[in-house]
Amino acid sequence: MKDITQSYYIKQKYRKTDIHLLGGNGIINVNRYYTMEEVSKHTSANDGWIIISKDGVKCVFNVTEWIPNHPGGSQILKDHLGKDATDDFEAIGHSQVVYDTLLPKYFIGFLRE
Ligand code: HEM
Q1: pTM for this predicted structure
Q2: How far does residue 73's CA lie from ligand 1's centre (Å)?
């Protein structure tokens, strides 16, 4: 298991942003781990999770609320639910706004490997 305190997300984003966004529940969230088996169950438009890694740390996001708003279309996001979408996500070249404001909002924890 990687030392998550070394991760970009914890240091730069979630330790501050997530706590703020969630009104104090961020600590619980950053210590939460999910198995692949658990993540793979969340594949529907009203309950959709996705994995995206940052600096080799696999992060889990509940993107349910974001699906209808995705500028790339809802279908492509639905196709990646319950899976590790890192390669396709990075291939598109998502903007810094996505990393700075959207992903922190939907972050729910880490993948247990
Ligand atoms: C939580 C996950 C995601 C978020 C928050 C997100 C967010 C966004 C945003 C904000 C844009 C507008 C362009 C930008 O600011 O970069 C965008 C475009 C796009 N996204 Fe995503 N996205 C996510 C996942 C994905 C995934 C998994 C794919 C799969 C390939 C994808 C494919 C695309 C495509 C094709 C576009 C349009 C690019 C273009 O028109 O040039 N996105 N996304």
Answers
A1: 0.81
A2: 8
